[in-house]
Design goal:
By secondary structure, the protein is of the alpha+beta class. Helices cover 50% and strands 9% of the residues. It has 17 helices and five strands. It has a five-stranded antiparallel sheet. Helix 8 runs parallel beside helix 12, helix 8 packs antiparallel against helix 17 and helix 15 packs across helix 17. The radius of gyration is 24 Å and the shape is globular. It starts with 7 loop residues before the first strand and ends in an 11-residue tail after the last helix.
Length: 411
């Protein structure tokens, strides 16, 4: 007999502009079958004399005077992965509740229901339904069917880690001479312990360490801006294997999209606070630095693989560069109608040509089979063009890595 999977819980956090709005939202969540729902003033521990945080400055001063709702939903009878499509619809539904009360969904966490219920902070508890589970539809929803992938890319080698080590050291020495003159993200490459120390087990590990040094956890900083010329030099260096160059191009895609990605993730919050989005200086300067080097990359267009051209055209779109070579070259890529690649190519083409009439249908097609895109597109606060830029790196990376030999080595 198969054991029944343990109940799974999700705790949602909503931010609302007033106590009345928070209580109204909490009542709606309780009506949806949530087991525990609490309402507290934002950063409430700052007002509790026994708390370590008592009297300390707020971590998020923009939300001073706002209220939070914490609500635990419990789901039983299924393994966690079987519930993912339903959870996605529930996240959308809870975000709608927050928006309806002039607030936003701040986040969620999940785990075994028994653990989450045990650690749930009951300060400000307004609704409790002991043993309640959220009603599940029967049958459970499933993810939409994906269209067929495009034709396989011509396979490109990622290369041996020792070869890449020699290449990055040579480029760093050529550009900076010594670690004293190198940007913070690069100086470790000029250390003898790097060049002659413990060898890397895989090229993917080295590429992952380099990406993390340039932008830790994907966050652009001043260090990221300083490191862009080095990444560009690596991409243009013929001693770097084509597959590694392709991975580096995808890293540049992520960096160029960091601003739009942040804007999409914070869109509801920005609207609720009545703010105007301002990209960070590091995100803006990183994208500008990449854009300034793009002509050099595009000059190599004829020598690139189709997969690299796909990444280059996408990078050109992300940087807002109007380049006819990239647009016409995009149309020549193997992307038959009805394939998932064709949908991504349509998005890149719309962004490259700044064609909003084509952009919305392209996003709609992607939303029809890419659940993550559909979830982000549902917010009325998300601008279509910003969404297109934000989702592009992952779509391209998912496609082109199939053409990289030794893909198992990728981070």
């Amino acid at each position: 007999m198969t054991a029944t999977p343990p109940a799974w819980g999700i705790q949602y956090t909503l931010c609302l502009p007033s106590e009345d709005a928070a209580r109204a939202a909490a009542a709606e969540l309780s009506g949806m079958g949530h087991r525990l729902t609490a309402v507290r003033v934002h950063d409430h521990y700052r007002f509790v004399p026994s708390s370590f945080w008592y009297g300390k400055p707020s971590w998020d001063p923009e939300l001073e005077g706002w209220w939070q709702v914490f609500s635990l939903a419990v789901h039983s009878g299924y393994e966690r992965m079987a519930l993912e499509p339903f959870f996605r619809s529930e996240r959308i539904r809870v975000a709608d509740v927050a928006r309806a009360h002039a607030g936003f969904q701040q986040g969620f966490s999940e785990g075994h229901a028994a653990t989450l219920e045990e650690v749930f902070q009951r300060d400000g508890l307004v609704h409790e339904q002991a043993g309640a589970d959220v009603a599940l539809p029967s049958p459970l929803p499933e993810d939409p069917a994906r269209p067929p992938a495009g034709p396989p890319w011509k396979c490109v080698e990622i290369g041996e880690p020792a070869v890449l080590v020699r290449a990055v050291v040579a480029v760093a020495e050529r550009m900076y001479g010594s670690s004293e003159d190198a940007p913070d993200a690069v100086e470790w490459l000029l250390d003898e312990e790097f060049a002659f120390g413990e060898p890397y087990g895989s090229t993917g590990d080295l590429l992952g360490d380099l990406a993390d040094a340039v932008a830790h956890q994907g966050t652009c900083t001043d260090t990221t801006v300083e490191a862009v010329p080095f990444l560009m030099e690596l991409v243009c260096d013929d001693s770097v294997a084509p597959g590694s160059r392709l991975v580096l191009l995808c890293d540049l895609l992520r960096l160029a999209a960091s601003g739009p990605a942040a804007e999409v993730s914070l869109a509801d919050r920005i609207t609720a606070l009545g703010c105007v989005w301002e990209e960070s200086a590091a995100e803006y300067l990183t994208r500008r630095a990449i854009g300034s080097e793009l002509p050099r990359l595009l000059s190599r267009w004829e020598d690139e693989s189709d997969a690299a051209r796909f990444a280059l055209a996408s990078l050109t779109a992300l940087c807002g560069t109007r380049d006819q070579r990239a647009l016409s070259g995009l149309a020549a890529l193997p992307a038959p109608a009805g394939s998932s690649r064709a949908d991504v190519v349509s998005l890149v083409a719309a962004l490259l040509s700044d064609d909003r009439e084509c952009l919305v249908p392209a996003l709609n097609r992607l939303s029809s089979w890419q659940p993550r895109v559909a979830e982000e597109a549902v917010s009325p606060s998300v601008d279509p063009q910003t969404l297109g830029l934000a989702i592009l790196p992952n779509l391209v990376l998912e496609d082109v890595t199939s053409g990289i030999a030794a893909e198992r080595d990728l981070p």
